[in-house]
User: Fold this.
Amino acid sequence: MSDVHPKNRCRVCGGSSGGGSGADSGGLCACHEAAWREVCGHYPTWEARMGAGWGEYLAEVARNPLTGAWVREVAEFMIRNRIARQDRRA
Ligand SMILES: [Zn+2]
Assistant:
């Protein structure tokens, strides 16, 4: 049983999602799941302040040196895969 089912792999880093507590996370490890929520959760604030779109927000997050590594990886993943804004999980 050394094989990790693809469904249980983190979509961002490919690591084990560790059993996947979050049913709605769609295959993310704990770190990236938390970062994913952070990226989605912070957007409304940013949008209200900057008045810019989701794509610009992700680009900003990805190149902000103050952004945590996990969050930046999630933003880069979203850009690469053209992930649409998802705020239903909030
Ligand atoms: Zn991960």
